[in-house]
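Supplementary Text 2. Reproducibility record for the structural model of the 189-residue chain.

All settings were left at their defaults, and a single model was retained for analysis rather than an ensemble. We include the record here because the model underlies the residue-level annotations in Supplementary Table 4.
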Amino acid sequence: MLRITAGEYRGRKLKVPKVRATRPLTERAREGVFNHLGKMVREAQVWDIYAGSGILGLEAISRGASQVIAVEKNKVAIDQIKLNTSILGCELALRTIKIDANRAVEILAKEVPPHLIFFDPPYDDFRKGGPRRLKAWALFKSYCGHLAPGGCGIVHTPKGLLNDNELEQLPGINRRDYGSASLYWWHKR
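Retained model, structure tokens:
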């Protein structure tokens, strides 16, 4: 079970989809994300890429985001996100797209530019290195290219995994660690 940490739905418990690759951020890490974002969340357009449980998008809605698009290719995860959205009664604020994140960037490019992007690919995409890691990092940068001015992209990786060369590609990127995970924030000028 997951619990919404703040906002309109604070304390509400939601189910996690029974999908092997889903590893929702801890409550502490989610609170850190949203404390960092502060007032940016209110009325924000949000893209939740590799949505998994959908908890980041649902936290954003609870804190006042106006619209979330959750991208996830796993049908079981999509169904659980929809059920959780229904339980909270926020169906109009969250739209799911069942598609691979690598293909979704072209579709989302036609949408209203987001103020926030949550990007949470499988850890192996970063851990195993090589072409898979290059592709994951390039995809995050591609999504960030669609941010509204002043928007923020957040990527979740295993702790301290991004190297200096990768970080230099997004000047001003910041890192915070939560247990075995790192969150990197990049704000578009």
